Amino acid sequence: MIFNKIHPRYIALDLGTTSTLIYLEGQGVVVNEPSVIAVNERGQIEALGHAAKKMLGRTPPNIRAIRPMEDGVITDYETAELMLKALLRQALKGASVVKPRALCCVPSGITEVEKRAVRDSVKNAGVREIYMIEELIAAAVGMQLPIEESTGSIVVDVGGGTTEVAVMSLGGVVVSESQKIGGNVMDQAVDRYLRSHYNIFVGEQICEQIKMQIGSAVPLEEEETFAVKGRNMLNGTPITVNVSSTEIRDALRECIMGVIGAVRTTLEKTPPELASDIVSAGINMTGGGSLLKRLDDAITQETNLLVHRAASPLTTIIEGLGMILGDFRRYRKLFNLYPT
Ligand code: ADP
Ligand code: MG
Q1: How many whole angstroms separate alpha carbon 224 and alpha carbon 246?
Q2: pLDDT, tens only, 213-237
Q3: 314 CB less than 6 Å from ligand 1?
Q4: Span 111-131, pLDDT tens digits
Q5: b/e string for 201-215 if b means 16 or more Cβ within 10 A?
Q6: Is the shortest distance between the CB of 211 and ligand 1 below 6 Å?
């Protein structure tokens, strides 16, 4: 145990569009930071994670704040590697002289080229061997679903860039679906609404705050308002407008229908035996986007299925990965995991 604390042999990695989480064997989740890095002209790191996210849209010309991940995959290879290296250093606190092995989750529909990008950046960041596992399998383990059994289970993960849906049974994914609709698209929808209805320009992070604070998928018991401070697009002066949750719901409608559409498409592709299991067990929902108020109720209204939200949707996957590492010998066999 002491040995693990100093030299974790295994780590788990959830490299998300929005945030990156690192779990150390014997210690738990030690890194949970936005997937953002700020670098200067010479390619040196100016800020990482939370500090770098604060810089988005505020950097002077000599600094760039970058999100190296988009829609669940690496889009900026070099920066991703730099970010991972720094986060790994932060996680291991220089304690490890031996490179650890990593269990890393990837989206179900990922291409071989995208997989290679993950493998190369993770390895170059300081990992000896990497085991890749489908993200929604890790989520299902994190939510303690009976995926080893022959019964069908469905997981919906509403992330930053995408919504991923999968039906699983006997330890594997039977059908899956990925749509480029997630929290970011919701933020953009809020932004578009504010521009077109109020000529007000506020920036990405305020739009996210508005969504989290008053956004909802179906009417709230008590509708709320948000005092939005921004810049008038017509004359550049600062203005404040009061926006209601009803308006934000309108703005988000299309995104919500997209999420529901992804669930529907998956159910249509699901073999009838498994579909009937899902009818009795309901839908399991996770990912940061699942925290949108009453998204569970909207899905129930449209599908007639019960929806269970994960207890902590932002950490379900890393917790699942941690549980898999905790009984790795068994899970490795069950999920056919091989190091690369
Ligand atoms: P990823 O796996 O893609 O990194 P996450 O599962 O971490 O994504 O989810 C991030 C998304 O969740 C962001 O778009 C964020 O705005 C959204 N989110 C977080 N909390 C809430 C909330 N309370 N209400 C609505 N959306 C939320
Ligand atoms: Mg995720």
Answers
A1: 8
A2: 999 999 999 999 999 999 999 999 9
A3: yes
A4: 999 999 999 999 999 999 999
A5: ebeeebbbbbbeebb
A6: yes
